[in-house]
From TrEMBL, chains A, B:
SUPFAM superfamilies documented for this protein: Dimeric alpha+beta barrel
Annotated ABM domain residues: 2-92
PANTHER family in alphabetical order: ABM DOMAIN-CONTAINING PROTEIN, QUINOL MONOOXYGENASE YGIN-RELATED
Annotated keywords: Monooxygenase, Oxidoreductase
Signal peptide: none
Pfam family, one: ABM
Organism encoding this protein: Natranaerovirga hydrolytica
InterPro entries: ABM_dom, AI-2_Isomerase_LsrG, Dimeric_a/b-barrel
Protein's name according to its UniProt entry: Quinol monooxygenase YgiN
Domain of life the protein comes from: Bacteria
Keyword set includes Oxidoreductase: yes
GO molecular function (one): monooxygenase activity
PROSITE patterns: ABM
Length: 100, 100
């Protein structure tokens, strides 16, 4: 299993638009991408500019296919202009699990 | 629902000991704490010093009870000496969900 935490810092005036776009991305990912354990959008309870994707994938193969999907390639790249500073991406493995 | 991401930066020589201690914390939390949706320990695939707790709680009440538990009070506070720099804690709500 792979978990990914994508912590994004969205410009204040673009938060609503960003959420609107990402709701479509979440829906398509959950519907179309095999091996997707979790793909959810969460907003920090103190700082609404911090919006984080919590992802879970069964394998590297499932993640690679997601990142090669049409919805990923169409929706994600343009979003970088929405961010106040670069996103923080951490790719995790359960403690003690070997790579699969 | 509440999601919490606790990103910790563990001193290199204490990683194994830290993981050993936290495995007990994870087991007790999953077993004893009602309303626990997820409580898992994950290690960054590039930087083994970054070890992150991904948590999910049904409500603020469930989270409060967890932080008031014996295992939390006994295990968590001493761990701060294991860290190279302060942990990053983000408390999240699903986008669009009102507080419960």
């Amino acid at each position: 299993m792979i978990r990914i935490i994508v912590k994004q810092f969205v410009k204040p005036d673009l938060i609503d638009r960003y959420i609107e776009i990402m709701k479509e991305m979440v829906a398509k990912t959950r519907e179309l991408d095999e091996g997707c354990i979790e793909y959810g959008l969460f907003q920090d309870s103190k700082d609404p500019q911090i919006i984080t994707l919590i992802e879970g994938w069964e394998s590297q193969h499932a993640l690679d296919k997601h990142m090669d999907s049409t919805h990923f390639k169409e929706i994600i790249p343009p979003l970088s202009t929405f961010f106040e500073k670069p996103e923080e991406v951490n790719i995790y493995r359960p403690v003690g699990e070997k790579r699969k």
